[in-house]
């Protein structure tokens, strides 16, 4: 499966959900990060079209919202794969050998950090400390935490038979 | 040894639901304060306990709360914000508390919000803490259904709404004013202080920002009193502390121990000492933005004043161990990469200085450094130090570098003279 380039607009239900988020705050724009992540939860990334729709819902300019979107690590303004691997690159994981794990992931997926595998299955990204230092090296696969990583564990997680 | 913060946390971290939490004595503090304590009395109880912030700065919690204006009619609404943006590398204590006992967090929020007369509270949660988010949202729902949140809580006339705000992920959001800017839906740029958030915080209204671990102490202090709390510590500071250890120790982990537990005890007894073939050279005692403590000072008590006496800071109490088989220059390069990447870019010394530091360290590590580079690094320590930048990010980045330049001078020179990393072949 290749990367989905969506041109469909947000559904009425999605728009209503974003308006409900805005109700939690005295100022609508405070919901913008939550709203972008919500959109991403449905479409994997935030397209220009969706960004414009969210901006209009929250009374923000597109440029203003894009400035916010591009500031935060967890918001994607470009398409990503079906699954996103966030491999920690902070100190405890580095001490415990994350570079070898990174090299193994790159080899298995045929990509460098920041890239998406040819089949569109995985995007590999570095991330700062994810608070799993007692099981370093650690990574997030979508919203699931995995620790004590080595080549064998990676292959098991990716479903590759040895 | 009492462990109030982690009493309810099971080894598999599956949290208690609201009934289990109540059966374990939960929500007693809420009943106590809403059943007849004035907000000022709650603040006084916390002030008496001398509870200090567990997020790293160690500011007295009761005093922080007492700086919020008392005249609600004049000041407008107040806000309580939980700093659950745990992102200090090497630190994994708040995740334990949030995942393992979410109702303790909610109870703490209710008591603290009542004390400062806030009717809205936000839990600003690290975006990557997906499990904690699910568990917190469930706990908020349960507490709401049980009448601990919402309007006229337990018939007291006090109203409180709690919202979980999952962040978009940036280290600087842990800085309390940057956190407030982020919560308002903007790029997380810190604000000048004063005014402090207690008078002008979220949307310009009086706001208290407290760390997760700090707040989790509050219900226990309300239930058991200041003397009990003071008695928990082994030194000047009261209470317990969740310490952690990571790196090449036998049993990396986190443990709730009496405040002032010696560093050597944390490493030897709780973390099981070093793994075979590894020796401890030094540690960063409280996350990345603290100075190295070398093996000679390993007996230091882990509390605010004692750690300062050996030239570092307690920080988050998350001990990161440097062993003899890890290149200290590589370690410094890794951590300055983190600081450079996570700079918000607002002020010049931080935005331009940190990437320069990273480049110099990477060059030295690769065997391409020159002796002059060490002088430039020393200059950065000065120009990015306290008082030179808009917030504490760059000074935090300079703490490990300054101590590294002092303690690892020989290793720096070895890299430069041999034009290679001596650890490269050793690995």
Can you tell me about this structure?
Chain A is of the alpha+beta class and 162 residues long. Chain A folds into 2 domains: 12-69, Arc Repressor Mutant, subunit A (Orthogonal Bundle), CATH 1.10.10; 83-158, 3-Layer(aba) Sandwich (Glutaredoxin). Chain A has helices spanning 12-22, 32-43, 48-57, 62-69, 91-95, 98-109, 151-158, and strands spanning 83-88, 122-127, 139-141, 144-146. Chain A has a 4-stranded mixed β-sheet with strand order 2-1-3-4, covered by helices on one side. In chain A, helix 3 (48-57) crosses helix 4 (62-69). The mean pLDDT of chain A is 94. Chain B is of the alpha/beta class. Chain B has 3 domains: 18-231, Rossmann fold (3-Layer(aba) Sandwich), CATH 3.40.50.11540; 233-323, Roll (Ubiquitin-like (UB roll)); 328-426, de novo design (two linked rop proteins). Chain B has helices spanning 18-23, 28-34, 39-49, 61-66, 72-75, 94-100, 102-115, 130-145, 176-183, 212-224, 226-232, 263-270, 304-309, 328-342, 348-365, 371-383, 393-407, 409-418, 423-426, and strands spanning 78-84, 118-125, 161-166, 207-211, 240-246, 253-258, 280-284, 293-294, 318-323. Chain B has a 5-stranded mixed β-sheet with strand order 6-5-9-7-8, with helices on both faces. In chain B, a hairpin with a 6-residue loop joins strand 5 and strand 6 (253-258). Chain B is globular and about 75 Å long. The interface between A and B is large, with 43 and 56 residues. Chain B: Its cofactor is [4Fe-4S] cluster; FMN. Chain B: This is NADH-quinone oxidoreductase subunit F. Chain B: Pfam families: Complex1_51K (PF01512), NADH_4Fe-4S (PF10589), SLBB (PF10531).
The strand order across the widest sheet of chain B is 6-5-9-7-8
| Overall pLDDT confidence of chain B | 96
CATH architecture identity of the largest domain in chain B: 3-Layer(aba) Sandwich
- Oligomer kind: heterodimer
Keywords (chain B): 4Fe-4S, Flavoprotein, FMN, Iron, Iron-sulfur, Metal-binding, NAD, Oxidoreductase, Quinone, Translocase
EC number (chain B): 7.1.1.-
Organism (chain B): Acidiphilium iwatense
Function (chain B): NDH-1 shuttles electrons from NADH, via FMN and iron-sulfur (Fe-S) centers, to quinones in the respiratory chain.
């Amino acid at each position: 499966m290749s990367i989905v380039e969506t041109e469909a607009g947000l559904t009425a239900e999605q728009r209503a959900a974003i308006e409900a988020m805005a109700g939690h705050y005295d100022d609508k724009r405070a919901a913008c990060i939550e709203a972008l992540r919500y959109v991403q939860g449905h479409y994997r990334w935030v397209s220009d079209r969706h960004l414009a729709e969210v901006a209009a819902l929250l009374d923000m300019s597109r440029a203003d919202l894009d400035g916010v979107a591009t500031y935060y690590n967890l918001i994607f303004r470009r398409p990503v794969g079906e699954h996103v691997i966030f491999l920690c690159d902070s100190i405890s994981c580095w001490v415990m050998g994350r570079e070898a794990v990174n090299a193994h992931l790159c080899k298995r997926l045929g990509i460098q950090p920041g890239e998406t595998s040819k089949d569109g299955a995985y995007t590999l990204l570095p991330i700062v400390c994810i608070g799993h230092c007692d099981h370093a090296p650690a990574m997030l696969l979508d919203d699931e935490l995995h620790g004590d990583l080595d080549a064998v564990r990676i292959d098991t997680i990716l479903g590759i038979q040895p | 040894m009492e462990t109030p913060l982690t009493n309810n946390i099971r080894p598999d971290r599956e949290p208690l639901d609201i009934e289990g939490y109540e059966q374990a004595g939960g929500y007693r503090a809420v009943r106590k304060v809403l059943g007849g304590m004035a907000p000022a009395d709650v603040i006084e109880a916390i002030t008496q306990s001398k509870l200090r912030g567990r997020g790293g700065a160690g500011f007295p919690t009761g005093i922080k709360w007492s700086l919020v204006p008392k005249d609600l009619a004049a000041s407008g609404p107040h806000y309580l914000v939980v700093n659950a943006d745990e992102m200090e590398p090497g630190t994994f204590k708040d995740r334990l508390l949030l995942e393992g006992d979410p109702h303790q967090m909610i109870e703490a929020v209710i008591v603290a919000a009542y004390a400062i007369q806030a009717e809205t509270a936000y839990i600003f949660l690290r975006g990557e803490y997906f499990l904690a988010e699910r568990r917190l949202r469930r706990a908020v729902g349960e507490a709401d259904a049980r009448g601990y949140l919402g309007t006229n809580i337990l018939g007291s006339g006090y109203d409180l709404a709690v919202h979980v705000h999952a962040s978009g992920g940036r280290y600087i959001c842990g800085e309390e004013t940057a956190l407030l800017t982020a919560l308002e839906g903007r790029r997380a740029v810190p604000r000048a202080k004063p005014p402090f958030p207690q008078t002008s915080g979220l949307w310009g209204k009086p706001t208290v920002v407290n760390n997760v671990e700090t707040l989790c102490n509050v219900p226990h202090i309300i239930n058991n009193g200041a003397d009990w709390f003071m008695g928990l510590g082994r030194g000047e500071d009261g209470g317990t502390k969740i310490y952690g250890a990571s790196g090449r120790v036998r049993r990396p982990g986190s443990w709730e121990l009496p405040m002032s537990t010696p560093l050597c005890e944390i490493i030897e007894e709780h973390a099981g000492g070093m793994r075979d073939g590894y020796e401890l050279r030094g540690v960063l005692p409280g996350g990345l933005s603290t100075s190295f403590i070398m093996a000679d000072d390993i007996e230091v008590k882990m509390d605010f004043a004692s750690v300062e006496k050996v030239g570092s800071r307690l920080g988050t109490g998350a001990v990161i161990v440097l062993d003899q088989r890890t290149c200290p220059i590589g370690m410094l390069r890794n951590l300055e990469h983190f600081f450079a990447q996570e700079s918000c870019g607002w002020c010049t010394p931080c935005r331009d200085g940190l990437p320069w530091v990273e480049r110099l360290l990477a060059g030295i590590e690769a065997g391409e450094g020159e002796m002059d580079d060490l002088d430039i690094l020393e200059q950065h320590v000065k120009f990015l130090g306290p008082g030179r930048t808009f917030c504490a990010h760059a000074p935090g980045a300079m703490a490990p570098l300054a101590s590294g330049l002092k303690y690892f001078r020989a290793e720096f020179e070895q890299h430069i003279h041999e034009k290679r990393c001596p650890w490269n072949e050793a690995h």
